[in-house]
Amino acid sequence: MKRPIKVDDYRRLAQKRLPAMVFDYLEGGAEDESGLQHNRDVLQRIRFRPRRLLDVSQRDISTRLFDRALAAPMLLAPTGLNGLFWPKGDLHLARAARAHGIPFVLSTASNTSLEELARHCDSDLWFQLYVVHRRLAEQLVKRALHAGYSTLVLTVDVAVNGYRERDLRNHFQPAMRYTPAMLWDGLTHPRWAFSRLRHGIPGLANLADAGSDDLEIQAALLSRRMDAGFNWDGLAWLRDLWPHRLLVKGIIHPEDAVRCAAYGADGVILSNHGGRQLDSCVSPMETLAATAAAVRLPILIDSGFRRGADIVKAIALGARTVCLGRAALYGLAAAGEAGVYDVIALLKRELDSTLAQLGCSTIDRLSADVLFGERQTAKASVQLEPLA
């Protein structure tokens, strides 16, 4: 393939380099995977309505999120097992994000520990939390606080693990073991196999020694199940425990966003987990305008973003920032840090070009007026039960 010119080019390169079971883990979704395509379809159905004869000779795609200037309205979303795609994958993602002036969010399921990332990356530190067990969550939060993280991202859309049929058929699991099928898959992808032989199969670094003297925590880790009982009281507990910025990721209903604000969250991330949890779920883009009308919190969004134009559509409907998951991982799997860097650069160029075509000189001037068929104002009817 010639030099990649769009994110999907990196997707093809990633598929070529990775064994099938690893690419399936990256690419796959829940059940019939209709949610994967729906995320893209919703974005593609939204059409632009440009304005003409406006001076767009100077454009600015930078923005602000909370108290920080971002070079573009995007960040790298938390994704797990990145070391499977490229050795030290988390560090490469973090470095590429820092070079572009955008945040990177480290996952609980990362192959680099939160302490190691803090030692090797001097940018603003964000950590994503899965609640597997309440005491384990408390340990991770305190570690993140001690390591200097500024932002905690609580993921709430994994009460149970999604039914991912590709992974089930491939017998994929986080602690990968060599099997004859895996060995053959690796032999037919020699570049990936050589890197694995050299660096080994990555482990879950944040959980390696977690709760080693706590039988309940060890049982929770061995079962690989989330704490399905974690509820709004749990969010209140976490808000008291974490003194810095707290975002709630996995929100899809405006009423839940309103309740997050009431419980002290500093922002929400609209997400259907990239189609990996609940198939046939609505796209976050379908609830974005109503959520933006219902809350004054900064709204971030993910799931299905592959083009700079997609990012513009989300900002026009009320999002502050778009979180990139698979798009960045395609670059990582294809070419390591250089691939991630290039994917971000491609999206920034597309975003800039889209602004110019719309007759808009800055990100902050975007509104639903540039979109065709979208309501100019969105009113949310939100009725809540009294807070406990």
From TrEMBL:
Binding site for glyoxylate: Y25, R164, H273, R276
Active site: H273
Domain FMN hydroxy acid dehydrogenase span(s) in chain numbering: 1-376
Membership in a protein family: Belongs to the FMN-dependent alpha-hydroxy acid dehydrogenase family.
Positions annotated to bind FMN: 78-80, 107, 128, 130, 155, 249, 271, 302-306, 325-326
Record Pfam families: FMN_dh
Record GO cellular component, one term: plasma membrane
Molecular function (Gene Ontology), one example: L-lactate dehydrogenase (NAD+) activity
UniProt entry keywords in alphabetical sequence: Flavoprotein, FMN, Oxidoreductase
Gene3D superfamilies, per database record: Aldolase class I (3.20.20.70)
InterPro entries reported for this sequence: Aldolase_TIM, Alpha-hydoxy_acid_DH_FMN, FMN-dep_DH, FMN_HAD, FMN_hydac_DH_AS
Known cofactor(s): FMN
One of the protein's GO biological processes: aerobic respiration
Species, as recorded: Dyella tabacisoli
PROSITE patterns in the record: FMN_HYDROXY_ACID_DH_1, FMN_HYDROXY_ACID_DH_2
Name of the protein described by the UniProt record: Mandelate dehydrogenase
